[in-house]
């Protein structure tokens, strides 16, 4: 089985990477092939170090971390979120509410474990358009590391940076022609990859990427520079997931009405589901930069375009005990297609005039996220007598090994289920964003006041979001049913073909061989043909007549205008610099959302809005006793705006196919308030001339009105909107999930980081080096939920421990990196039953090697997730005992396998 070979594969991969003996020498003008060192050192924080270098981090005026292109190349991934998660205090994640984690790639990044929506995201200093209406976080799917020059993370932003940055700000910078050590540069890179899990299952498992970079300086004094890069990649992979399919109940009947499941003794679920995901990922894009460097003025024009798409499917088998006398096998299929796009054009420059430094720029950006033709299908059949018995001795694998032979044959047979019905949706959101800024700095010749800096900025964002169900009230469109002149087939006697007769592929050995039978992957085109041709049509004898309320019920159009101004000064007293400042941000938000008239057919758009302002004072201190040491302190106020979709987004339902019972409801909260925070940061950094660094940082955050995901029970809800499926049953205890403002939360922690190449050691040992970072933190939050009775919780997404360990070898010809990432237990959401949702720790070991051949060729080999660890594991409660029953997610325990990569590049 796969897991039995993980240590052998690890050893073999390390030996393969390190056994490549040196056979050439790197050229001096290729910065990527040489260890990074500090340039001429200076105690002045106003020096202009090269962007993306260790000098930039050393000379910054606050607590910053910089990741260079060389460091990004050491992480084997086509996803920028996976790459930057190796920086101190950062972690990356995806969730299963859209099945994104099943792609094996992370989508969002957190700073010090704070929810990613607490971060500010910029590209070359300009705000990026948002594609996911449910969060302020930027989906990083569309930004591949191929076209990124460096990443700068500001953990204590100064007043000249965005104020909506409780966690910090992340700025991704694209290259220019002036970033290279010679007037002309070109590089072609080709990568091939293979997913081990998909290979084991016998499904599509390969892919590759091609990238081209070109840079050229020309004109008088080489003052003009052009950089262009483009990439195109495709890869196929698979994932396996398992989860409960019904809420937990106490095993002891006497505890049946105990509201606190944590004290009710052993629990059980009556249903479990097993899913196979297949994905075909495509990622392509381009970016360009045209720069002119004059004597006193520099101008630039930058453009970036990125597309990320997934064509994927989920095939599922479920084992159910619908009542005390019968068992039932369920079948489920849906498409998991996702298309995201971002584009931005940035124009600006800087001028130096008589002691003034003036920066100015404007940006136009567009982002889109779509889920087209999201089709779901259900398969059922006869319901035999008996009960499935689930073996839960392995908490990650609820097998049916304890069931009778007849029931096991019934479950694993491909003829037990027949095709019953389909549903479908078209959903998406867009963001059109325009922003501009002007900043001016005046530098004094003498005295303690070194400079004064002030600026103005404006940002306007137009957001649209929609979710159109295919059929009236999102009802079932039954195969061969009333629309086609047939009967309204019940789930126990479907009118369609059996699962075994459907077109598709049968795989064996699923779930590492623990699924004791064949697993059918249904052909997606056949399922789509049962739904897409009939969307938005009338079916008066079945689903019902399609109405305006059906189409518009989850449609929102919103506008947000943000105006900001700041002023800050730099005071210098010998080796100490003091930077006090103030920022003010004014926000005006308005939205038009559909409201049903209550007749299940008509409605209207109604408006809402809010305006608020935030004063954000801050002060930073930097003490530099020598050229290679700096001590920092920062005290600032920051805030975070609630996301568009959390205020005025859609209401969604999780509904049992057969009974019509609502299993879960998710809805927005128009009364959400911004979160605010007071932040204290202290740090010490020590550098050496070879680029080594050792740093320690302590921090404290006091957050008011923090936003968390709340789940509570209801018997009815008048705010559900107008698109409630016909025949829906809402009873006591239905979990309703909604965002809420909590009270006060506190987070404090310690960060340690170091990196060094052991150049003082003799011989081959001088080529080895190590890097490590550790974040230890504690959070305490008061949700103000009545059912928590004053009980403190953690902050969502704030693990108590995160660390990265790295060992590298670099002799100028061979570069090898072995990196290990650990992200600890995280709180995901609160419930009212005593068992909150948690994400179990994630562990990833990666290997990346590059060998520099003569004549400009490089060849490399990499493995992602060497130990074949799970990539997502959600539980109820902190322990691993109970897989999470999360109505909005299809998978609590997820494996995605290893990814093997071969790289070839040519510099010319």
Which descriptors apply to this entry?
29-stranded antiparallel beta sheet, mainly beta, 5-stranded mixed beta sheet, Maltoporin, Chain A
Note down, in words, how this protein is organized.
There is one protein chain. The protein is mainly β and about 900 residues long. The strands form six sheets. The protein has a 29-stranded antiparallel β-sheet that branches. Residues about 1-35, about 40-45, about 715-720 and about 725-730 have low confidence and may be disordered. It is a multi-pass membrane protein. Keywords: Cell outer membrane, Membrane, Receptor, Signal, TonB box, Transmembrane, Transmembrane beta strand, Transport. This is TonB-dependent receptor.
Question: Strands, helices and their partners?
Answer:
Layout: H1 6-18, H2 54-59, E1 64-68, H3 69-73, H4 80-84, E2 90-93, E3 108-111, E4 119-123, E5 126-127, E6 150-154, E7 168-173, E8 184-195, H5 196-201, E9 206-218, E10 224-244, E11 249-250, E12 267-268, E13 271-293, E14 297-320, E15 328-335, E16 338-353, E17 356-380, H6 405-412, E18 418-443, E19 449-469, E20 477-478, E21 504-507, E22 519-522, H7 524-528, H8 548-552, E23 556-573, E24 576-596, E25 603-626, E26 629-640, H9 644-648, E27 652-655, E28 662-666, E29 675-687, E30 693-704, E31 707-714, E32 734-741, E33 744-757, E34 768-782, E35 792-793, E36 801-810, E37 814-823, E38 826-829, E39 837-839, E40 842-852, E41 857-864, E42 872-876, E43 893-895, E44 899-907
Parallel strand pairs: 4-7, 28-32
Antiparallel strand pairs: 1-6, 2-3, 4-5, 6-7, 8-9, 8-44, 9-10, 10-13, 10-43, 11-12, 13-14, 14-15, 14-16, 15-17, 16-17, 17-18, 18-19, 18-20, 19-23, 21-22, 23-24, 24-25, 25-26, 26-29, 27-28, 29-30, 30-33, 31-32, 33-34, 34-35, 34-36, 36-37, 37-40, 38-39, 39-42, 40-41, 41-44, 42-43
Keywords: Cell outer membrane, Membrane, Receptor, Signal, TonB box, Transmembrane, Transmembrane beta strand, Transport
Motif (TonB C-terminal box): 891-908
Domain TonB-dependent receptor-like beta-barrel: 420-866
């Amino acid at each position: 089985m796969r897991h039995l070979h993980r240590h052998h594969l690890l050893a073999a991969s390390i030996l393969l990477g390190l056994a490549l003996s040196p056979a050439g020498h790197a050229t001096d003008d290729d910065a990527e092939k040489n260890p990074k060192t500090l340039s001429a050192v200076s105690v002045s924080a106003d020096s202009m170090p090269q962007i993306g270098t260790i000098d930039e981090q050393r000379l910054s005026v606050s607590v910053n971390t910089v990741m260079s292109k060389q460091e990004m190349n050491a992480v084997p991934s086509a996803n920028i979120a996976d790459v930057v998660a190796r920086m101190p205090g950062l972690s990356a994640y995806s969730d299963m509410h859209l099945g994104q984690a099943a792609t094996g790639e992370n989508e969002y990044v957190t700073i010090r474990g704070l929810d990613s929506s607490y971060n500010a995201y910029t590209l070359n200093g300009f705000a990026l358009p948002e594609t996911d209406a449910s969060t302020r976080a930027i989906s990083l799917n569309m930004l591949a590391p191929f076209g990124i020059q460096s990443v700068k993370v500001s953990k204590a932003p100064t007043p000249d940076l965005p104020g909506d940055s409780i966690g910090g700000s992340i700025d991704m910078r694209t290259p220019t022609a002036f970033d290279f050590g010679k007037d002309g540069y070109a590089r072609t890179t080709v990568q091939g990859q293979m997913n081990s899990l998909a290979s084991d299952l016998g499904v599509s498992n390969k892919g590759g990427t091609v990238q081209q970079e070109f840079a050229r300086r020309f004109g008088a004094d080489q003052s003009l520079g052009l950089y262009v890069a483009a990439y195109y990649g495709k890869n196929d992979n698979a994932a396996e997931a398992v989860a409960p399919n019904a809420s937990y109940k106490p095993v002891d009947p006497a505890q049946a009405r105990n509201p606190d499941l944590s004290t009710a003794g052993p629990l059980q679920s009556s249903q479990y589901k097993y899913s196979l995901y297949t994905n075909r990922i495509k990622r392509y894009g381009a970016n360009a930069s045209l720069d002119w460097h004059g004597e006193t003025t520099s101008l630039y024009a930058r453009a970036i375009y990125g597309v990320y798409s997934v064509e994927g499917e989920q095939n599922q088998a479920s084992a159910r005990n619908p009542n005390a006398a019968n068992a039932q096998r369920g079948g489920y299929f849906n498409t998991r297609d996702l298309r995201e796009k971002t584009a931005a054009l940035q124009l600006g420059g800087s001028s130096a005039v008589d002691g003034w430094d003036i920066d100015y720029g404007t940006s136009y950006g567009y982002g889109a996220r779509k889920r087209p033709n999201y089709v779901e299908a259900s398969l059922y059949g006869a319901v035999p007598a008996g009960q499935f018995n689930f073996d839960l001795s392995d908490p990650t694998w609820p097998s049916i090994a304890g069931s009778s032979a007849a029931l096991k044959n019934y479950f694993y047979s491909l003829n037990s289920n027949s095709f019953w019905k389909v549903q479908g949706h078209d959903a998406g959101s867009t963001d059109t964003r325009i922003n501009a800024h002007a900043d001016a700095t005046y530098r004094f010749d003498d005295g303690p006041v070194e400079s004064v800096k002030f600026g103005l900025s404006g940002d306007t964002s137009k957001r649209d979001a929609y979710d159109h169900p295919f059929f009236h009230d999102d009802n079932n469109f039954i195969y061969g049913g009333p629309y086609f002149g047939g009967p309204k087939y019940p789930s126990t006697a479907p009118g369609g073909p059996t699962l075994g007769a459907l077109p598709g592929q049968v795989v064996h050995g699923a779930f590492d061989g623990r699924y004791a039978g064949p697993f059918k992957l249904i052909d997606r085109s056949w399922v789509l043909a049962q739904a897409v041709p009939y969307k938005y049509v009338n079916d008066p004898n079945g689903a019902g007549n399609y109405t305006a309320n059906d189409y518009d019920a989850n449609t929102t159009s919103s506008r947000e205008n943000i105006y900001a101004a700041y002023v800050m000064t730099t005071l210098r007293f010998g080796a100490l610099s003091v930077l006090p400042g103030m920022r003010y941000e004014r926000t005006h938000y308005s939205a038009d959302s559909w409201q049903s008239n209550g007749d299940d057919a008509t409605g209207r758009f109604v408006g809402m809005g809010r305006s608020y302002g935030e004063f954000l004072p801050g002060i930073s201190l930097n003490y530099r006793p020598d050229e290679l040491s700096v001590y920092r302190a920062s005290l600032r106020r920051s805030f975070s705006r609630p996301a568009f979709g959390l205020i005025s987004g859609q209401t969604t339902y999780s509904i049992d196919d057969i009974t019509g019972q609502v299993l879960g409801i998710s809805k927005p909260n128009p009364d959400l308030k911004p979160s605010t925070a007071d932040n204290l940061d202290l740090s010490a950094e020590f550098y050496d001339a070879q680029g080594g660094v050792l740093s320690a940082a302590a921090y404290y955050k006091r957050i008011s009105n923090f936003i968390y995901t709340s789940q509570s029970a209801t018997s009815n809800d008048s705010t559900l909107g107008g698109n409630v499926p016909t025949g829906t049953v809402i009873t006591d205890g239905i979990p309703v999930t909604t965002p809420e403002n909590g009270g006060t939360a506190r987070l404090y922690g310690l960060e340690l980081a170091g990196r060094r190449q052991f150049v003082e050691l003799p011989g081959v040992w001088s080529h080895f080096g190590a890097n490590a970072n550790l974040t230890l933190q504690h959070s305490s939050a008061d949700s103000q939920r009545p059912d928590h009775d004053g009980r403190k919780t953690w902050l969502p997404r704030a693990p108590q421990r995160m660390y990265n360990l790295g060992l590298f070898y670099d002799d100028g010809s061979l570069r090898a990196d072995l990196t290990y990432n650990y992200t600890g237990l995280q709180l995901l959401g609160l419930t009212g039953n005593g068992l909150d949702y948690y994400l179990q720790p994630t562990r990833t070991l990666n290997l990346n090697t590059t060998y520099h051949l003569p004549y400009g060729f490089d060849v490399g080999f990499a493995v992602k997730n060497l130990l074949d660890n799970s990539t997502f594991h959600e539980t109820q409660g902190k322990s691993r005992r109970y897989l999470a029953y999360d109505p909005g997610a299809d998978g609590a325990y997820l494996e995605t396998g290893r990814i093997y990569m071969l790289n070839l590049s040519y510099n010319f």
